[in-house]
Amino acid sequence: MANVIDVAAYILERIGNVTTMKLQKLIYYTQVRYLIMNGVPLFENRIEAWANGPVVPDLFRVHSGKYMISHEELILSNHTSALTNTQRLAADKVVDLFGGYSGEQLREMTHSEAPWANARKGYKPDERCHNEITIEAMLDFYTSPICLNPIACQPNEE
Q1: Contact yes or no for 6/56 (Cβ under 8 A)
Q2: For residue range 72-118, what is the model confidence (pLDDT) as tens digits?
Q3: Whose C-alpha in 16, 60, 96, 156 is 20 to 30 A from the C-alpha of 88?
Q4: Which residues of 48-77 are buried (b: 16+ CB within 10 A; e: fewer)?
Q5: Would the pLDDT of 147 be above 80?
Q6: Parent domain of 151
Q7: pLDDT value at position 24?
Q8: Per-residue pLDDT tens for 39-78?
Q9: Is 126 helix (H, G, I), strand (E, B) or coil?
Q10: Region class of 58: left (phi > 0), else alpha (psi between -120 and 50), else beta
């Protein structure tokens, strides 16, 4: 199983410097894509329903206080070699689909989807929340017929 830092380093290697908000959303959708493709999570790191969308706190601690982040800032060792071809395929699909979106556009997308919205039930829009977006919630929503997100294509559509 990969670590979220490995996945983030690979994404940054592919697309270059991005805002930390955009990186967090790309990481979230990479977890979703891998889950749909393989039936198991890509990484075990917890994803929480923060005010600005899904956030992996373990990754947030690495980029806290920064607006932009680069590949070099995440390389503690040779992280990208830690990913298998299957893991890279999931990240590649997400980058292909959403790499051109801004962090704000991805934020709005996640805000319109059930996993984030349901995890934040009872919280005001700007209120701090550390509720987890569970693997089960992601699987239930992104494999349901009501999901229109292109990340939810069938596993054999690679």
Answers
A1: no
A2: 676 654 445 679 999 999 999 999 999 999 999 999 999 999 999 99
A3: 60
A4: bbbebbbbbebbeebbeeeeebebeebeee
A5: yes
A6: 4-157
A7: 97
A8: 999 999 999 999 999 999 999 998 877 777 877 676 654 4
A9: coil
A10: alpha
Tokens encoding 65: 């206080």
Q: Output the CA torsion 87→84→11→45 (10° steps).
A: 60
Residue 102 burial class via C-beta count within 10 angstroms: exposed 0-12, middle 13-18, buried 19 and up: middle
Task: Please name which of 12, 34, 40 lies closest in space to residue 24, comparing C-alpha atoms.
Answer: 12
Contacts 24+ apart (CB under 8 A), 82-85: 82/2, 82/3, 82/6, 83/2, 83/6, 83/7, 83/10, 84/2
Tokens 């929340």 appear where? 129
Number of helices (H), then strands (E), in the chain:
8, 4
* Number of structural domains the chain divides into: 1
